[in-house]
């Protein structure tokens, strides 16, 4: 059965290359998340319509900024933005990292049900998992502080790799400390259909790369 609401949101976003099969998997992921959320409280989003906007589309809008073949999704929670991105970009391998067992259990189930061969769930804290210099990208929606994000995840980047942090509003005072950590930063406004509030993507790269 087609998901006309999701199809409409994708059209409104202007994103291209999302096939019917991908849309079906994205819809299935939303259904699975809604089902698990009733018991395990994986996200504060409660209705399916809101989930399509605030979880699925809010993840997909960074697709144009992905570069490389290997991505780590830091603090993935219930697989956001990692699983929607992995569905839409099967050519990229994603490691989805979270420290909470119930979240990674859900991610494992989603990977199994959706048949995703490019996703590896990882249970653990970012400070303790291996992977130095192995990733082209590190994504996250989970960090309130850009400095914390850069400090914890910069070691995972290959030479020329980038950190992609999804945020609401971004202030100058939050960007300023990044230089002292060795990172440059550029900010991009994101347009999420029917999302009430500002969304931005901050892309950080090592200054000496």
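^ Assign residues to that structure.
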């Amino acid at each position: 059965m087609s998901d006309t609401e999701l199809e409409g949101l994708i059209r409104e976003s202007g994103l291209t290359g999302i096939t019917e099969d991908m849309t079906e998997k994205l819809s299935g992921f939303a259904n699975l998340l809604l089902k698990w959320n009733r018991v395990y409280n994986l996200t504060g989003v409660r209705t399916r319509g809101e989930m399509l906007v605030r979880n699925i589309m809010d993840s997909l809008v960074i697709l144009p900024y992905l570069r490389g073949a290997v991505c780590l999704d830091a603090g993935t929670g219930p697989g956001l933005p990692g699983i929607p991105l992995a569905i839409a970009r099967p050519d990229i391998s994603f490691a989805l990292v979270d420290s909470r067992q119930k979240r990674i259990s859900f991610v494992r189930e989603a990977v199994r049900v959706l048949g995703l061969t490019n996703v590896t769930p990882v249970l653990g804290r970012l400070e303790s998992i291996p992977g130095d210099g192995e990733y082209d990208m590190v994504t996250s929606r989970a960090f309130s502080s850009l400095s914390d994000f850069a400090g914890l995840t910069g070691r995972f980047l290959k030479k020329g790799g980038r950190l992609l942090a999804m945020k609401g509003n971004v202030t100058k005072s939050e960007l300023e400390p990044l230089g002292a950590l060795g990172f440059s930063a550029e900010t991009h406004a994101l347009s999420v259909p029917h999302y009430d509030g500002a969304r931005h993507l901050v892309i950080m790269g090592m200054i000496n790369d």
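The longest helix spans residues 20-40.
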